[in-house]
């Protein structure tokens, strides 16, 4: 279920945001639930980790910016969208890595575009592969995959928690992952760009300190793909 927190001390504004979310997301996903808060203090007392936070910047006592800083301490990857009537706070929003910044009065088309972009980003975090063996099937979230290794027709998926083996073609996996942050750097390896620490002419060094071979003929394309990933990385 997609959980969205709306923290706004103005009742009319808060209800308006809730209505827009339920209108625009209700048409594409019924599993969305909104939670309303009238202050940053009330929000921070909630035990839930929300997928998206809509925070009014100007609130009594604890501002939206200060609330966001507290959220970041416990939910580093949360999507935070600020709403405010003043442009002066835009640079403060950058300090907490806000996903977006919406000026009041809120333009509904702009709101819809930002909301859909946020939901699209979240959906990527929950994409997965199914590793099928003779006796069982395993669901592997793409975000947990560090790299994939091929040995003949056997695939080894190196994740953050285990190595999962099954029979499959690495070329088919390459096609399945073509729209995600993966790159086939060698005939035997596909790496998740999110876990790349550095690289040279021979190896890609991953964040878990493992080294994966990179073929010379793929080096230039890999460098471009990695730079593009870094430039467009949102969370």
Automatic annotation (TrEMBL):
<feature type="domain" description="HTH LytTR-type">
    <location>
        <begin position="129"/>
        <end position="228"/>
    </location>
</feature>
<dbReference type="Pfam" id="PF00072">
    <property type="entry name" value="Response_reg"/>
</dbReference>
<keyword id="KW-0238">DNA-binding</keyword>
<feature type="domain" description="Response regulatory">
    <location>
        <begin position="3"/>
        <end position="119"/>
    </location>
</feature>
<protein>
    <recommendedName>
        <fullName>Stage 0 sporulation protein A homolog</fullName>
    </recommendedName>
</protein>
<feature type="modified residue" description="4-aspartylphosphate">
    <location>
        <position position="56"/>
    </location>
</feature>
<dbReference type="InterPro" id="IPR011006">
    <property type="entry name" value="CheY-like_superfamily"/>
</dbReference>
<dbReference type="InterPro" id="IPR046947">
    <property type="entry name" value="LytR-like"/>
</dbReference>
<dbReference type="GO" id="GO:0003677">
    <property type="term" value="F:DNA binding"/>
</dbReference>
<dbReference type="InterPro" id="IPR001789">
    <property type="entry name" value="Sig_transdc_resp-reg_receiver"/>
</dbReference>
<comment type="function">
    <text>May play the central regulatory role in sporulation. It may be an element of the effector pathway responsible for the activation of sporulation genes in response to nutritional stress. Spo0A may act in concert with spo0H (a sigma factor) to control the expression of some genes that are critical to the sporulation process.</text>
</comment>
<keyword id="KW-0597">Phosphoprotein</keyword>
<dbReference type="Pfam" id="PF04397">
    <property type="entry name" value="LytTR"/>
</dbReference>
<dbReference type="InterPro" id="IPR007492">
    <property type="entry name" value="LytTR_DNA-bd_dom"/>
</dbReference>
């Amino acid at each position: 279920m997609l959980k969205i927190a709306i923290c706004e001390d103005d009742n009319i504004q808060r209800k308006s945001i809730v209505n827009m979310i339920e209108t625009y997301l209700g048409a594409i996903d019924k599993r969305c639930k909104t939670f309303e808060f009238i202050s940053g203090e009330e929000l921070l007392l909630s035990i839930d980790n929300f997928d998206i936070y809509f925070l009014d910047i100007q609130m009594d006592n604890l501002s939206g910016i200060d609330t966001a800083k507290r959220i970041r301490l416990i939910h580093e990857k949360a999507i935070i969208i600020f709403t405010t009537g003043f442009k002066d706070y835009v640079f403060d929003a950058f300090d907490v890595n806000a996903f977006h910044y919406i000026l009041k009065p809120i333009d509904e088309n702009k709101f819809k575009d930002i909301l859909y972009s946020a939901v699209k980003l979240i959906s990527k975090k929950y994409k997965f592969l199914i590793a099928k063996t003779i006796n069982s099937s395993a669901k592997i979230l793409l975000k947990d995959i560090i790299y994939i290794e091929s040995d003949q027709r056997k695939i080894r998926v190196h994740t953050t928690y285990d190595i999962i083996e099954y029979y499959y073609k690495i070329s088919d996996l390459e096609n399945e992952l073509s729209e995600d942050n993966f790159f086939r750097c060698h005939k035997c390896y596909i790496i998740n760009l999110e876990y790349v620490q550095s690289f040279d002419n021979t190896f890609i060094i991953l964040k878990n300190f493992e080294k994966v071979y990179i073929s010379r003929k793929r080096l230039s394309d890999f460098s471009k793909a990695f730079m593009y990933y870094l430039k467009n990385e949102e969370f």
